[in-house]
Amino acid sequence: MLREILPSVLAQRTDVLSPRMIRLIEELADDWRRLDDRVDAVTSEVHALARQDEGCRRLMSVPGIGALTASAVVATIGNGAAFTKGRDFGAWLGLVPKQLSTGDRTILGRLSKRGNKYMRTLFIIGARAVLAKPGSWAKFGLEGWLVAAAKRLHHNVLAAALANKLARIAWSVLYHGRSFARDFEPQSVS
Q1: pLDDT by residue (tens digit) across 99-137?
Q2: What are phi and psi of 104, to 5 degrees?
């Protein structure tokens, strides 16, 4: 919005801003446009690379995972063989709650946040994108779980729980070499 109205504001208000200030703002606006062009070029390159990679294409079949997240996951963990199960990948990302245990009680706390901050953020953004479109929940087989979880969890906690679920699904998709399907049943790993 600022980008759209900035030229008209600068043209109309010559009495408020000095000519030097107007020139500086115009130069900053040009820098902003060039930066946007660079971001668009890099984004296009990431999308092209993700379309060429088989692992990225499989990951992009998972809800909430786009080209940026898929390429980051593949670049970081490859085929997922470094982890024995999806739970380990979720924990490595820092998407699991801290556990406080006393005697026979286990209390789940905040996210551990001990893992890869960049990828954790990408998964949480993807989870929020899925949560924003309740109509797609049934398509991906997440409706029952999300509806039940939404009744008992705060929306931020729900986003973190869904991000953990999506990370575990992403690991499974990479490890088993299959695209995501709502009825996907991973085989047990011996």
Answers
A1: 667 777 765 665 656 778 898 899 999 999 999 988 888
A2: -100, 10
CB 62 within 8 A of CB 80: no
Residues 92 and 83: beta-carbon distance below 8 Å: yes
**b/e per residue, 98-115, with b = 16+ CB within 10 A?**
eeeeeeeeeeeeebbeeb
Query: Which residues on adjacent β-strands are paired with residue 102?
Result: 105
State yes or no: pLDDT of 86 exceeds 60. yes
Tokens 């008209």, residue? 8
Answer whether 111's CB lies under 8 Å from 96's CB: yes
C-beta pairs of 28-36 under 8 Å, 24+ apart in sequence: 29/3, 32/3
Q: Could you give the C-alpha distances from 34 to 1, 3, 15, 21, 31, in angstroms and in order?
A: 17, 13, 29, 20, 5
| Paired tokens of 51 | 């379309």
- Residue 67 and residue 51 in contact, taking contact as beta carbons nearer than 8 Å: yes
What secondary structure letter does DSSP report for 143?
H
Q: Retrieve residue 71's tokens.
A: 């390429």
